[in-house]
Amino acid sequence: MRPKTFLLFLGLIWLNIILASGQVITLDEMQVKAKTNYPAIARYNIIEKTRYFSIDNANRGYLPQGSISSQAAWQSDVTKIDLDLPIEFPSIEIPVPDQDQYRLVAELNQTIWDGGNITAQKKSLTANSELEIKKLDTEIYALRERVNNLYFGILLMKGNLQQHEILEKELQRNYDNVQAYVQNGVANVSDLSTVKVEQLKAGQQKISLESTLDAYIRMLSVMTGEPLDKDMTFVKPNPETDLISPIINRPELKMFNAQEEAIESQKLLLKAKNMPKLGAFAQGGYGKPGLNMFDNEFSPYFLGGIRLIWNFGNLYTLNNDKKIIDLQKKAVNTQREVFMQNLFMQIPQQQIEIEKYKKTMQDDDEIIRHQTFIRKAAEVKVENGTLTVSDLMREINAEEAARQSKTLHEIQYLMSVYSLKHSTNQN
What we know:
The chain is an alpha+beta fold. The protein has helices at 3-21, 27-37, 43-59, 117-183, 189-224, 251-273, 318-384, 389-424; strands at 24-25, 65-74, 100-113, 233-234, 277-288, 299-309. The protein has a single domain, classed as Outer membrane efflux proteins (OEP) (Up-down Bundle). Helix content is 65%, strand content 12%. The longest helix has 67 residues, at 117-183.
């Protein structure tokens, strides 16, 4: 066979193995798909658009603001000159305004200086928008732990099922052996029933393991939006514990910072609220009377100028408002300290667990080796008639328990490593 043909042949064999084993699934892949599939991910775009439109609206505060008003009124008295007064107006007739008055007014206002109110609004909108994003980051980050738990649950169930297959083969082999012993008069029928009971129990345990595996896979499938099944290959991740940095980079810390920024932005709004406002205005109207109050005919009129407004009533509460803002920042800082204290208590515990499972796994293979040796010795004793089949079943179960313990310890080790990574936000 030529080298190229041989390599092609090996490639086809490798491809068939991959196809036969099903699709390969990794934890990192599930993390990415769970985040993409999370419904709240759409809120990023919503927050961004809301910020854009809100700031755009704030900028429009610099545009001229117009209004139109109309009024029809009747008044009980009007301005007039009392002819009984000792004032002489020779040859002058002073008209008296009508008691009914009408007015249609259009007014245009242009902000010249708003005391920094619009600038403060934009900073506050930006800070609050950033806070919403950081809160969403924190919410989505919590998905990682849920995906981890489901993924490692799947690995544990699949590992237990693999060990269970070994147990079933072992029980079937011993059932065949005991059946031969019965035929040879070395064992009796009750010994055969003892093995059969263990086989039935193993079958029940397998059903329980498969049901749990199916539940975990379905939950992970819903979370990621991907069709998953038990025939797929779920790869054990490489923990690389040496690369875990002690630096804590949790999104909650950025959220606390964003909360402080949002609260701090209220001070700018508070300052702007207590500043005077300067603007220009132009007013055009049509009414009876116009600007000439003695003219009883409808006439147009116009006036314009500059207006300064200063509402200093808010100064009475300014100091208390500042103190309230400072207290809100202290409350956020307290939340940060509580969060960090909990992490500082949790991280050493996780590090201890990692070391514990490392040391535990060192003895698992040795325990399995000894249990296998004990089980084989028990089989020989049963064959020689010096040990009961019930005692043999106990040794077989002990060997199976040792194998499952090894699988459990491996998954517990991985879970403790990834719990530490989650606590420090290490990829």
